[in-house]
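Follow-up to my post from last week.
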Amino acid sequence: MSSGCTPAPRGAPSARLARIAAVVVALAVAPVDPVRAQDAAAWLGKAAKAARELTYVGTIVYQHGPRVETSRLTHLYEGGAEYEKLVNLDGPAREVIRSQGEVRCYYPDAKIVRVEPRTFRNVFPSLSPQQQQALAQFYEFRVAEAARVAGLEAQAIVFEPRDGLRYGHKFWVHRDTGLLLKARLINEKGEAVEQFAFTDISIGARVERDHVKPSWPGTPPDWQLKEGSAGDAVAQDTGWAVTRLPPGFVKVNEGFRTLRGKRDPVAHLVFSDGLVAVSVFVESIAGMPGQALGTMRQGGLNVYSMKVDDHFVTVLGEAPAATVRQIALSVARR
Amino acid sequence: MNEDLSRLMDGDLDDAELDHLGADLRRPQALATWACYHAIGDTLRGCPHGSAGFGARFAAALAAEPTVLAPRPKARAERPAMRWAVAAAATVAAVGVVGWTAFSLTESPGTAIAKAREASGITSAQVRPQGVPQDYVLVHQEYSPATALQGVQPYLRAVSAQGSDARP
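User reply:
Got it. Predicted complex:
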C-alpha cells in the first residue's frame, strides 16, 4: 500500500547522516569501564553455565502484553548433555522438548509436531574482550537490588540501553547458583514488554530421563510432521546483506536453511549486539503465499515482513519495532 | 482538539483518548485538520502530490485486506464495526506517525526513534500476529542469547496461546 512517497528511512540523506553522527558522538563519549564490562560478562557467563549444567524443575509465569501464561519446566543435565521439557498449563496444550540434536514442538489440538535441528551455540562463557567492550558500549550495566524470587534469595542486575535502538534487560539471578530466576525486557517507557519468572523452583531436584521425554512416543500416525533439515548450520554467503546495520550489531551467522518442506532454501542471517539476536530471513515469494506484511509482534519479538523484488524479507528479534524495521528496510543483494 | 490530533500523530494518546478522538474524527472539520497535518508532512518530505487520493486508496486497500484485526480474546463479543474502527484508526495513526516522525528534522534521533517505535506498538497491539511464520521463530530462538541464559523458556514465544492463534 504505497502512497508514492519516499519511504521514511530513505529520507533526506543529510538529516539521516546528522542523526547517525549524533548517535556516534554520543556513544564515543559514553564511558566504558573495563572492570564493569568484565563484571557483566561474568554474571552472564555464570547464568548461562547454571542454566545448562544444573538440574531443576519449576513453574514459570510468562507475561507479554496483557497476557499471563503458566508453564512447567523440567531441566536435566546428565553425562554432559542437557534435556529439557516445557509444558504449558493453561490454554491449548503445548509441549516443547529440547534435547541434544533437536527441538520438538507438539500442538496436540492441531495434531502437528514441528521439529527443528538444534544449532545452538552458547555465546556467553566465550565473550571476547572486544565483545565485552561492545556490550558495555551499548548498555549501561549495574548491579541493582537484592530481592526474593520464587522464595529464593536473588540479585537483580540491569542492562540499560545507551540509545533508543534496543530494549533494557533486567535479570534476577539466584545468589547461590547464578541461575536466572526472572528475566524482563523493558521498553523506553520503563514498561515490561515481556517477562519470564519462576514462581517455584527446585534446584538439584531428582529428575529421571522419563520426565524429559515427549508425552507422545514418536510421531502419532495421524499427526502432521513439519521438519527442518539438519546440516544447515554451515556458514556460507547467501548473497544478501544488511546495508544499514544499527550500531553494535555484528553478524554472527549466515547460511541457508531448508524449512517445512519448502523447495527453495531460505537465506538466514543472524546479527547480535551481545544481549539479543535479530534474524533476517529471505526466501522466494513462491514459498510464502499469503504472507502478511509490515510490523507484527509475538511476545518479546518484533517482526517486520516486506517484499524485495521477487523475495520476501522477514526480520525478527528481541529489539524495538523501529530497529527491526530499519534492518528490514536495508536488506539488499550484495 | 488540534493538540490531540498532533499528539495522535506523535503516538502520545492512550487507548481511551484514542477512542474518544476516533469519535471526534467523524467531524469534517477535524478530518480537514488531520489531512492538513499530513499534507504538511508530505510537503516536508518533498512529495506534495503524494497524498492526493491517498485516503480513498487507503480505504479501498484496507477494505480489500483480509481481516488481521484486533481480536484480543475478550474483545470478541464487540461489534465487528467497532473493531474495524479501532484497528483502522490505529493503522492510520501508525502510518501517519512513522511518516511524520521520520521527517521531523529538529528532533533528536532518540526521540524520533522512540516515537516511531510507539507508532509500531500501536499497530502490533491491534493486529493479530497470524502472519509471523512460526518456523522462523523456532529457528531464531536457537541463535538468541536469551536461549543461552534461559534454556527452553523463550520457546514459549513460539508455542504460547498467542502463538497458537497463529497457525502452528
